[in-house]
Design goal:
It comes from Streptomyces johnsoniae. The protein has 10 helices and 24 strands. It has 445 residues and is α+β, with helices and mostly antiparallel strands. The strands form 5 sheets. A 7-stranded antiparallel β-sheet has the order 20-13-12-11-14-23-24. A 6-stranded mixed β-sheet has the order 6-7-8-3-9-10, with helices on both faces. A 5-stranded antiparallel β-sheet has the order 15-22-16-17-21, with no helix packed on it. The longest helix has 18 residues. It binds adenosine-5'-triphosphate. Adenosine-5'-triphosphate binds next to β2 and α1.
Length: 445
Amino acid sequence: MTRTISLRDVTKVYPRDVVAVDRLSLDVEPGEFVVLLGPSGCGKSTVLRMIAGLEDITSGELLLDGNYANHLPPGQRQLAMVFQHYALYPNMTGRQNISFPLRIEAPHADERTRVNEAARLLGIEDLLDRYPRQLSGGEQQRVAMGRAIVRRPSAFLLDEPLSNLDAKLRNRLRAEIATLTRHLGVTTVYVTHDQSEAMSLGDRVAVMRDGVIQQVGTARDVYRLPENVFVAAFVGTPRINLLRATVHAPLDSRMSIDFGTQRMLLPHPLSPDHQMLRVQMGREITVGLRSEAARIASPEEMRPTEALLNGVVQHVEYQGHESLVHVSTGARPADVDGLEAPRPTGARRSRGRRQGRGRLGRLLGRVGQGTLNGGRAPVTTLERPPPPTPAGRTSDGLVVRAGTDVQVRVGERVPLLLDLDQLYVFDSEGRRICPAPARRPRPPA
Ligand SMILES: Nc1ncnc2c1ncn2[C@@H]1O[C@H](COP(=O)(O)OP(=O)(O)OP(=O)(O)O)[C@@H](O)[C@H]1O
């Protein structure tokens, strides 16, 4: 059996008025794998713990298979939770650890078949007689998973189960968890602050910030259609380039986006999306461009949907199959608050960041650095070239993906062709206005 998990307007207030979760609603369908993704302290674990029954719900409703479940003790919820810290009993073997929940439920039953079955699924049959200290981190986490699945739960709640492991092992176990939960067909809610983990695991990803869900969607949707600048900045590597800009819309000439040192003329006639920008005239906007939306190429190669910018190469990250080129264009980077919440080493994190800020005020604020320059469609006006920046300084560089055939040197001035179909614009409150909410960007050529 697998379950539906529904949260309706759920709020959690800890002592001293710390609002950890704020009117959160989410429906997880039977067999679905949903990832809660967000920076440290945004309330992910609290949501999981409320579903598990380890935290009381301050207000709102938890429904399990449509039935009100706020009051059910953890043991009656038939949910299995796996934590970041494996929490194995050190004086028990793998087999004893895995069988422990069964022995609690039915002390005299023979649990060997179920333990063997769980061990086979996890590929740890040979490790059952070892103690935790004789197991690697990945093996310990498999035993912890074994302890969770042996009860044949109707849902898994996984709280950063891989974060203590090294990157290689994490990737491997990630794939194993995806295969295992699919095989078992069990509803899964998985918490992580690692966006690449979220994107590779979940049927859907719920991006959280300050106790509030910002967007729920497939990995593709949250990447390609971020509803606000926070989601755009939190999801994707390298981080989306974000630039401050203004819309210039004179009655007698073409509309443009100004980045300060460079002006990007919008193609005429305006696309429906670009028409939406007219109302932003005079207000500050944020322009977002992912690294794959710009290319270093000669202006003669410019396509009708591209715009030209010039920049100066600041730094080149060689990645083998490609290079990430940091280019200074002289535009002002936009900041998004809260993306980089420091991750405490202990279990608890900072609190009470909510006071004194409106909801939308909190939205803007948290993006890291990113730099972009706007250039613009069929015609780009370079009013003045960007000033060269000291070599090695990359914080204000627009990051552009380049193939291995593109050879550039630090300090070199390069043309950038920007794909306008992949241009995001966010209003002064951080909401995406372009592509318009009902429209989708075209896939890259
Ligand atoms: N028992 C508690 N008492 C008081 N405040 C708490 C308690 N547990 C969590 N908090 C606060 O609630 C907020 C959300 O915490 P939570 O652990 O849910 O965040 P998280 O997104 O899971 O973070 P992390 O990724 O670091 O695990 C934080 O501000 C945290 O300090």
